[in-house]
Amino acid sequence: MSPEPIFRVALRGEEILTSPRWNKGTAFTMTERKAFGLTGRLPYRVNSLDEQCDRAYDQLEGRDAPLRKNTFLQSMRDQNWVLYYSLISRHLKELIPIIYTPTEADAISNYSHLFRRSEGMYLTFPSQDSMEEDFLEQTKGREIDLIVCSDAEAILGIGDQGVGGIGISTAKSAIYTLLAGMDPSKTLSVTLDVGTNNENLLDDRLYVGWPHHRVRGEEYDKFIDKFVQLVRKHHPHSLLHFEDFGVGNAKRLLDLYRDKHAVFKDDVQGTGAVTLACVMSAVGVTKTKLTDQRFVIYEVVKKVRPTVLIGCSTQPGAFTEEIVREMAKHCERPIILPLSNPSRLHEVTPQQANDWTQGKALIATGSPFPACKMPNGKDYIIAECNNALIYPGLGFGAMLAQSRTLTDTMIIAGARRLAQLAPALQDPDDALLPDFGDAPTVNFEVAVAVAEQAIEEGSAGVDWKKEDVEAKVREKHCEWAALGNRRIREGFS
Ligand SMILES: O=C([O-])CC(=O)C(=O)O
Ligand SMILES: [Mg+2]
Fold first, then answer.
1. ipTM of this complex > 0.90?
2. Hey, how many other C-beta atoms are within 10 angstroms of the C-beta on 158?
3. Average pLDDT over residues 301-321
4. Topology of the domain covering 6-99
């Protein structure tokens, strides 16, 4: 890839400044300004991307509350993609919690009140007759690699959020770009608005979604099927990512479509895979076997004597002192994973789990937490067992390999690679999973493992040799990052 990729763009003047894909703001060169009619539309000085990022970071710092930072970044995403992604990439650990969990949960629950500008695609039950037309309005002629959709029945741990679910679709696709290098012009974020059973939203006169109770049963299935068939017809090679559907539908929809299209259900497969990687890493520390573990998702600790406690209850405090102490009586290094999101819904805080087990617990959480103090005074780093450590790589690997399905064996290959990168395998008192600051490298490794597995098992659509996979993935992984240096010329690309 040349360090200065060149694109042909058929927009001019105001149109190019209001296109987030092409807008470069003060980074337009003098040649570009002349060619696109921008000389009188911009102040004189040409800034580098570094300078733009510095300015934007200062502006961001001026906003104290995380939600204000979130809305600032949302506006920036509407204005200038390269700046938005470059800024976040430079402050990954600080800004991912702003555009993703936990802050995005607040943005979603306040969606109708914070609403300024539409984002992504809204497909609404009463407008289903025009679904294909609406879909093509936004996608015709576009190459689309990834579609993230949500019906918002079970957003993070905050439940039914109706039309606000668009926020999780756009956040998840931004993470694909940031952590795996997916080109955002080839992604589509969709909300499937089938109503909401959240009475607060229904009672809110400013609610911008369809003010109706959730459609269920056959009508719901038909609506979802209509959408899936459109995806299959117009973008047969895309990856279709389902996010935050209710438990009653999530697994059912996955089973229904997984043999027909490359579908991925993040909260089943992504969360499952990152948790598996985390447990593999912990089992590496305890020098036991995965098959020797006793898993408990909620309670019954005395009876079962679990070695692994997994929290996905969204009940804060569910892992009580009694439960945790009881567990620690029966195992040397209890593996405790309070995974509910966002942070305020965790079943136990890492510091409590550490204190109640005299520093023996191996801990990972679903949202970011600060390190806790071990009894010996050392810091214990809390791994973030969030599916973002793996799903961008799973999806990117499957997409690059043009895999017709995302098989369990591909997912396990990704989980195994992630577990191999765990710091705890070098030092048993270190984090169970890699640091989020390393998430781009980690997802790159996951993508390679997934694509290699797809090739090995014959589900890939490309005819790469296994030994070439790493180089191929690297080339694509870097492509989007190189856009910070892009030049544009007049014409059609
Ligand atoms: O989005 C996240 O942070 C993880 C996730 O999928 C969920 O909690 O539903
Ligand atoms: Mg989710």
1. yes
2. 20
3. 90
4. Hemocyanin, N-terminal domain (1.20.1370)
